[in-house]
């Protein structure tokens, strides 16, 4: 396949990434205006699910910003953005339960999550060094530097691929729990799906961008060897 084709794939993936970010923001804002029938806040939802699963020692804390929600596995704390922490909308409950889904994964040592945590230090280093090696390899016409960059960047791509089942599983857990516990009614499931599916799409797009970028550099390396 030609380099032009890989450039096309990369730009297509970038377009998907921008569209996914737009969908996340749009769906979050849309369903932030729709109150959940249970009237639970995101914080109350998170606390309820954690306690139901015996995670009494995992705190739920507010954090500044919008869509800054995350689960911190090192400190074992669920951090929710203020609109989610204090809000009692479909969006707030959806996002809060998703982050708690990661805490439940941590509790049972979910395989993909454990693997992601173990390789994170390596990936953090590799993702910072790889672009420099690619740049140096191209400027100096050094296939060795490009090859080393490919090896390191492959670790970053692998990390993003491992992230996909982690995120999808957390969303699946979230939807099952909030429906079975009556926090969300069946008539409200469509909104939950809209919010969580849009968020999941951002991870898919990011993985595709990285994968196509890796393939592009592999093509540069192979073409250089042929020359």
What does this structure look like?
The chain has helices at 3-32, 42-52, 82-86, 90-107, 111-139, 143-180, 189-226; strands spanning 60-63, 70-72, 77-81. Helix content is 74%, strand content 5%. It is mainly alpha-helical and 227 residues long. The protein contains 7 helices and 3 strands. Helix 6 (143-180) runs antiparallel to helix 7 (189-226). The two termini are 16 Å apart. A hairpin with a 4-residue loop joins strand 2 (70-72) and strand 3. It has a 3-stranded mixed β-sheet. The chain has one domain (3-226).
Task: Write the topology of this structure.
Blueprint: H1 3-32, H2 42-52, E1 60-63, E2 70-72, E3 77-81, H3 82-86, H4 90-107, H5 111-139, H6 143-180, H7 189-226
Parallel strand pairs: 1-3
Antiparallel strand pairs: 2-3
First-last Cα distance: 16 Å
Order of helices and strands: HHEEEHHHHH
Major sheet strand order: 1-3-2
**Measured on Cα atoms, how large is the radius of gyration?**
20 Å
Strand content: 5-15%
Please tally the helical runs, counting DSSP H or I stretches of 4 or more residues.
7
Count every beta strand, where a strand is a DSSP E run of 2 or more residues. 3
Q: What structural class is derived from the secondary structure elements?
A: mainly alpha
Helix content: over 70%
Please state the average pLDDT score.
91
Quick one: biggest sheet? Answer: 3 strands, mixed
Number of domains: 1
Question: Which stretches of 5+ consecutive residues score pLDDT under 50?
Answer: none
Global geometry = elongated
Keywords: Membrane, Transmembrane, Transmembrane helix
Transmembrane segments: 119-140, 145-166, 200-222
InterPro entries: Zn_peptidase_2
Protein name: Peptidase
């Amino acid at each position: 396949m030609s380099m032009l084709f890989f450039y096309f794939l990369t730009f297509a993936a970038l377009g998907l990434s921008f569209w996914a970010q737009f969908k996340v923001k749009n769906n979050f804002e849309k369903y932030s205006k729709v109150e959940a029938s249970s009237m639970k806040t995101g914080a109350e939802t998170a606390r309820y699910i954690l306690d139901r699963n015996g995670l009494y020692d995992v705190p739920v804390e507010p954090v500044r910003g919008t869509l800054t929600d995350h689960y911190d596995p090192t400190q074992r704390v669920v951090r929710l953005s203020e609109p989610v922490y204090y809000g009692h909308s479909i969006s707030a409950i959806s996002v809060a339960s998703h982050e708690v889904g990661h805490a439940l994964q941590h509790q049972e040592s979910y395989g993909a999550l454990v693997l992601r945590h173990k390789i994170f230090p390596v990936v953090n280093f590799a993702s910072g060094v790889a672009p420099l090696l690619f740049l140096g390899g191209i400027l100096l016409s050094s296939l060795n530097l490009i090859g080393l960059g490919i090896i390191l960047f492959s670790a970053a791509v692998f990390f993003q691929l491992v992230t996909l089942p982690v995120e999808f599983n957390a969303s699946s857990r979230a939807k099952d729990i909030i429906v079975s516990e009556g926090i969300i009614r069946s008539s409200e499931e469509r909104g939950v799906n809209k919010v969580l599916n849009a968020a999941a799409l951002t991870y898919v797009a990011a993985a595709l961008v990285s994968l196509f970028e890796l393939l592009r550099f592999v093509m540069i390396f192979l073409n250089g060897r042929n020359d």
